[in-house]
Structures are given as structure tokens and as C-alpha cells.
Automatic annotation (TrEMBL):
Residue ranges of every copy of the NAD-dependent epimerase/dehydratase domain listed in the record: 15-201
InterPro entries (UniProt xref): ComplexI_NDUFA9_subunit, Epimerase_deHydtase, NAD(P)-bd_dom_sf
Name the record gives this protein: NAD-dependent epimerase/dehydratase family protein
Organism: Allofranklinella schreckenbergeri
SUPFAM superfamilies, sorted: NAD(P)-binding Rossmann-fold domains
Record Gene3D superfamilies: NAD(P)-binding Rossmann-like Domain (3.40.50.720)
Gene Ontology MF terms: protein-containing complex binding
The organism's place on the tree of life at top rank: Bacteria
Length: 334
């Protein structure tokens, strides 16, 4: 595989963004371009296309790292399948990518993971956790300057969970499994997550571009604590709440957006255990449904963290959940 040709000025440093066409990846790409980076997309739909089920050796990644100064991996699957096994897409391919970065002297690598996987036993949790651990081990060994970001529930345009919760917020009743209704979340806006990723990379103005991937980002960012951060960061929004409270908050915003004032509270009907399991298994059989066994396991667990980490990375306050829907319009243009 040869490195893709670029149509943007060669003076801009390049970041390899894996999963650039996904929900989070698209927003990260916009934030990186605003920050002055040239984005080289690596996905099934990029040119050349990158198949993560076939990218399990460092040699596969080497051509894509030519002329790159940083790497962001935002690839994520909600469903495990024979065609796209999580063991390959979440674990083997990222491990190979991280090893290739270390071999090429490309130090800055950011991995987008998920809060709540530390002790989970789903395929999603196990595979994400394994890739996270590999990047952190390479960082601890001094071979990379890696960062693992584990965000809580992410809100934003194009997100499957966002579409699901917005649809539920419009209904006069709310029927969800009791563990999901009671689970505590600390939602964050996708534009905040994307901006945090951009700030974790070296300022483009301080990077010498060229064919070498090696970047002394510490020297380039002596006064920028965010760009010099390495290790694991759990990211969460400014307010913790139950899932039922979160959906009610979205419902209130939808009513205000429509000029009708706060909507009347929805009736809440906790689903029985047997129906919860049956609906999740049914979702497993529907490829385009955001509801499945993996999402049930994730949503039924608490996803909360220190609220100070995200604003520290952003250098500003994080968007409060009460402003999420207003933020959709504000950030619609990227």
C-alpha cells in the first residue's frame, strides 16, 4: 500500500486519523483541521481503503505513516461479527498500528476508548481494554507518548445513542430496562471530546514537516501541559445523572426548542428482565439497531468520572447537558 496523495498544502503537518468517517471520528477530523492539521483518513471508505480486519501487522501500517506526525485511533464497533470481529478491529489492528508507530519513531498516539470497560466482560470491553493496555505499556516503556481517552456517554449529531435517546425523549412514555434507567452517566458533547483530542496534539505551527514521522512534541510544547499529557484519562461531562434524568433533560430542551416551553414529564415504565433480554437479543439480529446486548451491558453500568479532567484538557468549561441540543445547531457546520 502506498501513502495517499494529499490535496492540501504540504506545509501543514499530517495526522493519521483512523475511523475518520465514524461518529466521533468525523468530529475529530473537523477539530483537527480547525487547529491547522492536515488529516489523512484511514477507514473502509478512505482512499486507499483500510480494512482493519486485515491490518494486524506493523508492515501493513508502515506506508500510511510516511510523513505523519501524529496518530489518532477513533475506530469502534458496537457489534461483534464474523465479518468484522472485535478481536481484530479493536485489538489486533490497533496493536499493530501502535507497534508500527514505535518502530517509525512516531511518538504521539491518541486512542479513543470508552469509560466503563475497565472491568466489563463483553467482547467490546475486553478488546478495547487490551488495545488500551498495549498503548499504555509502550508509553510506559518510553517508546511512545500515548494517550488513552475513555469518554462517558457522548452526545452529538450522527451518534447512534444520541438518535436513540432523542427519539425516546420525544415520546410521552419512557420504557427502558430498570438497570438502564437507574444507571448513572455523565454525558459529554462530542465537540468537546474532539477539541480535547486536537489540544492533545502538538501545535501545528511548532512542527517541522517532511518525510520523517519523528516529532519531539515535548520540546515543541514546553508551555502547553495538555499537549504534553500522556497516559489514561477518563472523560466525563460536568453533571452526573441517571439515564432517566438525562432523557428527561433532553425532553425539556426539545420542548424549549419548539417554543412550547418545558415538556410534560414522560411516564416511566421499567421493562421486566425477560423483556429486556429478549429485546437485546432481537437487536443483535438487526444490524442497524443501536440496541443490542453490547449496548445493554454498557448502558446498564455506571459511567461517571472526575468532572475536572475534561475542562482541564479543553482549557475551558465543558458544555453542560442542558445546552446539548442548542449546541447541535452551533456546531452543525463543524
Amino acid at each position: 500500500m502506498t501513502a495517499p496523495a494529499s490535496s492540501t498544502p504540504s506545509t501543514a503537518p499530517t495526522v493519521l486519523l483512523c475511523g475518520a468517517n465514524g461518529f466521533i471520528g468525523r468530529h475529530i477530523a473537523q477539530a483537527l483541521r480547525r487547529a491547522g492539521w492536515q488529516v489523512r483518513a484511514a477507514s473502509r471508505h478512505s482512499s486507499p481503503a483500510v480494512d482493519f480486519t486485515q491490518a494486524s501487522t506493523p508492515a501493513h501500517w508502515a506506508p500510511l505513516l510516511h510523513g505523519v506526525q501524529a496518530v489518532v485511533n477513533a475506530v469502534g464497533l458496537l457489534r461483534d461479527s464474523r465479518a468484522r470481529p472485535m478481536a481484530l478491529v479493536h485489538d489486533a489492528a490497533p496493536r499493530a498500528l501502535f507497534d508500527a508507530c514505535a518502530a517509525h519513531g512516531l511518538r504521539r498516539v491518541v486512542q479513543i476508548s470508552a469509560l466503563g470497560i475497565a472491568h466489563g466482560d463483553t467482547a467490546y470491553a475486553r478488546t478495547k481494554r487490551a488495545a488500551d493496555a498495549h498503548l499504555l505499556a509502550l508509553t510506559e516503556a518510553g517508546q511512545l507518548d500515548g494517550v488513552v481517552l475513555r469518554p462517558s456517554l457522548v452526545f452529538g449529531a450522527g451518534g447512534e445513542s444520541t438518535r436513540l435517546f432523542m427519539a425516546l425523549a420525544r415520546l410521552p412514555w419512557l420504557a427502558l430496562p430498570r438497570p438502564v434507567l437507574q444507571a448513572r452517566v455523565q454525558p459529554l458533547a462530542v465537540w468537546d471530546l474532539a477539541d480535547a483530542v486536537a489540544r492533545l496534539l502538538p501545535p501545528p505551527a511548532g512542527i517541522a514537516t517532511g518525510t520523517s514521522a519523528t516529532t519531539d512534541f515535548t520540546a515543541n510544547n514546553a508551555t502547553d501541559g495538555t499537549a504534553a499529557f500522556t497516559g489514561l484519562a477518563d472523560l466525563a461531562g460536568p453533571q452526573a445523572m441517571t439515564m432517566a434524568e438525562y432523557i428527561a433533560l433532553l425532553r425539556t430542551q426539545l420542548g424549549e426548542q419548539g417554543g412550547k416551553g418545558p415538556a410534560r414529564p414522560a411516564r416511566v415504565w421499567p421493562l421486566p428482565h425477560w423483556l429486556t433480554r429478549a429485546s437485546a437479543r432481537l437487536g443483535d439480529a438487526l444490524p442497524f439497531s443501536p440496541w443490542c446486548s453490547q449496548s445493554l451491558a454498557l448502558l446498564a453500568s455506571d459511567n461517571v468520572a472526575d468532572a475536572h479532567t475534561l475542562p482541564a484538557l479543553l482549557g475551558r468549561p465543558a458544555t453542560p447537558p442542558a445546552r446539548f441540543i442548542a449546541g447541535l445547531a452551533a456546531f452543525a457546520g463543524g
